[in-house]
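Give me structure tokens for this 326-residue protein.
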Amino acid sequence: MSEPLPLDDDVRRHLVHLQVERRLAARSLALYAQAFARLQAFATASGVPLRETQVHHVRRWAAQMHSQGLGPRSIALVLSAWRGLFRWWVAEALVAHNPVEGVRAPKAAKPLPKALSVDHAMALADMRPGVPPDAPLAAGAALAERNGAVLAARDQCLVELLYGCGLRVGELVGLDLRPGPAAAGWVDAPDGSANVLGKGSKRRSVPVGSAALKALRDWLGVRSQLARVDEPALFVSSRGTRLTAGQVRSRLKLRALRAGLPMHVHPHMLRHSFATHLLQSSGDLRAVQELLGHASITTTQVYTKLDFGHLSKVYDAAHPRAKRKG
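Here you go.
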């Protein structure tokens, strides 16, 4: 393997500029130096003087990096370094134009949202924490047990609304006890619906199932033991004030651990699970879009990929022609 070419003097001056003027960290400088070494290697292999690089050269070199297995994010970083170099050279009157302007890296594939299996979702929803029968009784044990039961009722309701209604965590913690002009959202138990304020300040109404309504009744029966008298929030913390998204994440993580789930569970995973399981059962993409509050159906279509993955597993496990012989 040939030794890398020494960096061009004006490239090294730019690195000094990044270190002294921009105060880049050593790790960042090393990445920039690697990117410039790539640029020089491409220019040399193509027989192109470095300062005569044109847009079509940059596009070809970006395509070569992609074909060599470099990921879209890494290519974007390299192009960013090149873009900054030529921009600096334009300012220094070393080149007339920046050939990297307008050249973009290939789009990185968006990872599919992770959803729980139906069994794991049921295990999370059905988990009932309690005081172990052999737990030692100490001073204040009765109070601790009572508070634990109140928090358990609240957490049960949180899970049922996240998974049963597909709410975002921000929509969940924004729910108020009662409807009103200042309320971001509320649950209308007699109507069996939740009214929430979603992204872009768009309101939507989603049905609330029987399991969530029961959990809501249980929580409302003990909410006053935690909530401050003047607190409008439906869900409150142990301090009596509105529950935060971070607190929901922490409680859900703890609940998943206690339920024995083998993965990290976060609120948005329950929203993904809601959408995936509903689509698997109904196949109605437009209805799922409305329930999730997506402005565009293209956002919802990601769940068709998750559903296809589920169908593929069913096919592979059940169909006699699925297993291919080597």
